[in-house]
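Weekly puzzle thread! Below is a chain. First person to post its structure in token form gets bragging rights.
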Amino acid sequence: MKRTRSLYVPAAAAAVLLTAGPVASATAASATAVGTRPASAAAARADVDAAGAAAAALKKYPGFVESLDKDGSVWHVDVIGKNGKAHSEVEVSAAGAVTRSDSDTEQDGNEYKTLLAAKVDAAKAMKAALAATPGKVWSLDWDNDNDNGVADYWSVEIKSSDGSTKNVGVDAKTGKIVPADSDNDGDNDNDNN
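Winning reply:
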């Protein structure tokens, strides 16, 4: 008698699982049919922003971002090594993967001395520029051309939601907004990259 009873319990459990299986599958199918996507599919479609591209490049090539710009769905990031003697030109895909790079380890370390000593790095410069001008960072360049007597600064191009662009200068010592290079102001107003 004990043997018969133990057969009924597993049989009853199997019947419940068989009945619930198609219901669970139908529920999942209807959720997909009404537009619900799995979280991984939504994350895979999001393009990496400038900060994410810089972080991906620095993860592969530790150092300091000198410049970055977006070309279609690819980010081009220039990274200077921590010693100032290495220079890597990195491409970062829309998904944030480093897809290609060219490196040179024979740079003059003095050429990037001011970049390496800057208190405001690329990430801080982008954050300061976005606080002053809402939008998306489209490019960033280190500018230490002191020929005109201007202190070292970051030139950050911001694209607003209406498609217009603005160059924002960020002081490399203080993080305060300063006038950007006037040669570039407005050059890209009609650029729809």
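Puzzle host: Confirmed. Bonus trivia for everyone else. The first strand starts at residue 63 and ends at 71.
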